[in-house]
Amino acid sequence: MKIEFSVDGGLASFPGLRKPVTIDAARLPPPHVARLRKLVDGARFFDATPPAPSAQVRDAQCYTIAIDDGERQRTLQVREPIRDAAMRDLVSELVACADDQRRGRPGPTST
Amino acid sequence: MTIARRCACCSIVPPAVLRHIAQTGTGPQREAALATLATDATHRLSRATTQLLERDVRHSRLTAAPAAKQRTIYNANHRTALPGKVMRNEGDGKTKDAEADEAFDGLGTTFDFYWNVYRRNSIDDAGMHLDASVHYGRKYDNAFWNGAQMVFGDGDGDLFNRFTTSLDVIAHELTHGVTGDEVNLVYVDESGALNESVSDVFGSLVKQYAKSQTAAKADWLIGAELLTAKVHGVALRSLKAPGTAFDDPVLGKDDQPSTMAGYVHTSADNGGVHTNSGIPNHAFYLAATGIGGYAWEKAGRIWYETLRDKSLRATATFAQFADRTIANADHLFGAATRKAVVAAWNEVGVAITPA
Fold first, then answer.
1. Domain B189-348 CATH class label
2. What pLDDT is stored for residue B2 in this prediction?
3. Which of A89, B29, B122, B175 is the most exposed place for a label (fewest CB within 10 A)?
């Protein structure tokens, strides 16, 4: 499984945080991969229909998540506020993974 | 043309849908939506008339009683369901939760600014309840306005502090509500950058007012308190010197331009609304310092009245907004102030209409 993840928008423009990050399951320890798969399944990523964003939201972030699971591929844009708890958990994990990569940290940081 | 002349109540495509297309559609779709919004002048006039009639009936501007703020702070409890559980209502004492109490105080200071300086009774000038949720998400590095309330994250504690710690950020978010109530600048491209700039301008003015700072003494920074000592930077943005707020290995380099020569054409961030806001931000700084004194008194008044100007469209470009600030400067304060505002827009390279 490969995940491309990027963040757009928010209160401020941080070019460094806008760069897409690739999360490759082949490079992760098995427990982390299992955790990711569980979160992807829990969010029903390949079937979910995120609600249309409100036109009045300001300074909210938009997450672009592209997942290639071998058999299935899908790209979703998910905007704050994220009402679905499972999708929220997936986004939080991806944010943490992206953070680790950008800062050169070795492993998952989210709890 | 027939569609453009219809008012909002009988348009085939509601303005909210058009705005959504303008923000999320393809290039041709966005252009078409913006063009439709721009020519729908009857909607704006109808809305303005309705608002005026409603204000005559119930707004405190026409009464002797001072406006009363009504605030509620909610605890989102590290989840994302809004608003969360009530933590503090108007009249309640401190909670000892730093985020909740900072949000409460910041909402109050912002409310007081709008009432004391411009006689505006809350976001909608009708005493709208001020709601904010704190502890949104986990280590959430952001704050936003969801159309009805403010939402604040705690920050990751590594690069970002809690987002309630910055008064200008609280005022920035609340001002999105004010803009939404007035001209509702479409949140894409130049009108979106103006939307962001207006929030930065009044965010900074609220801070300056709270500190009784003149334009010359103010730091003109947005979110200076948000960045931890680990970050190579001083703030999220600078109105005085766009593009200099940060240069960090993780966050990147502040990419705000200060003049039209540096305007960024991008599809990211709704056409770079947080980037290109640097240009009108810098124009305001130049106007305020050129005029001198306290920035909220003249420059702020000019910008505020421009926000309420019935000639200003939701799809306003920088040039159209600039033209209204110049006209309002002349109308409110005369030739000398007008000259300072003209000089400011000239310096940032926005093409204003010759007198």
1. mainly alpha
2. 33
3. B29
